[in-house]
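User: Predict the complex.
Assistant: Input components as received:
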Amino acid sequence: MWDWNTAREGLPVVLHGFGITLLATVLGSVVAMVLGLLIAVLRRAPTRWVTVPVRIVVEFVRSTPVMIQLFAVWVLVPGLDPLTIGIAVLGIHYAMYTSEVYRAGIDAVPQGQWEAAVALSLPRGRVWRAVILPQAVRKVVPALGNYVISMFKETPFLSVITVQEMVHEANEYGSVHFAYLEAFTLAAAIFLVASYPTSMLMRRLEKRLAQ
Amino acid sequence: MSEFLTQFSRSLPSVWQGVSVTLQATVLSALLALVLAFVLGFMSRSDQLLVRGLSRVVVEFLRGTSLYVQLFWLFFALPILGFKLEPLACAVVAFGLNYGAYGSEVVRGALNAVPQAQWEAAVALNLSPWQRMRRVILPQAWVQMIPPFNNLLIQLLKSTPLLSLITISDLTFQMDQLRSTTGNTAAAYVTLLVIYFVLAYALTLLMNALEAVAKARLGQGSGLRHVLKPPSAGITDPDGRAARAGGV
């Protein structure tokens, strides 16, 4: 049954793991944001030799479980520490989703903006940096934010490759003290407390940007 | 590699066994999720503040607490409270509740996206609330729901390797066995990823077919002829937000 003392003693352990969870979320998001943008731009490349392979990779990575991807990279790439692998794999997996978000944003930029940029004979790099992306990215910030929240809730997968994030710590505390009830309830509560306000924030942002 | 293939073909029965366990968990969870999605989705449109509020709280709770933690909670913590579920039942309940919560947002969004005039026309024709929903609103909303439901279904399938963590002999478990007997890690994982990819693609084709049929009922599209098109866009949308906003 529920024991408050066990819960109180378990809290610091679980919170310690939460630090790793946050770190993985933040760094994983950076990977997903940067790589996703790169992929979105590549998918607009003028040649099929680029767009088709990129599309195949995106479809494949997006349709396969992140847990298996984590296992595969962990076993096949020796010499990297689990947290680095976790951040990279999670970031790459989510980059496939964010690339679609950016793509939708880029598609939503009116054709006239491209034509105007051509008429001004801007070089291709500046068309992207100064004209298209500032308009495209602004609109999709809430959607990107929602993926960060999704990723946050998937960080427990990192525990399968021995990363000591929150759920790993909760699991360990639970098994040592036979306190699974307290440990996992705490982990669930922390997830809820952290993700709910963030998702409210994204919803607000969405409404504001829609105006 | 050839050694791996020999071993793989020899253990095809157990791999197939794993595929069927994985698919069984996916289908059962998806059915539970579908029912819950409709229940919570309709509740969120109720006139009663209490019913609406209850649905909101349940949805936010289920979405906010992480599927992984929910599954482990059901598997490890619930028995301490005196309820012991079979591992497969744990998985189906956890997946069903979690994806049902996400699905309810899809249902809500799709119902909201049916133009107001359709509701008014149904009232003007003196249809009963049941007829209005069954004959006018749902057929239109259903078409909107299928693409985001497909995304959720693929995500659900992608969550199923969790089964292997709670002692279920699913596809991931069987391939892991194969990996340790052959010692060929790369081949085993690549094969596993490819199998998952094929399963995901098959589910997408099925959902595309469902969408084509639903559209044909509305007099749109040309039925099943164009099912083999590439999967439709909209996968960018974890919560079905596009459906809520009224179309992708």
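The longest helix of chain A spans residues 4-42.
Let me know if you want any component modeled separately.
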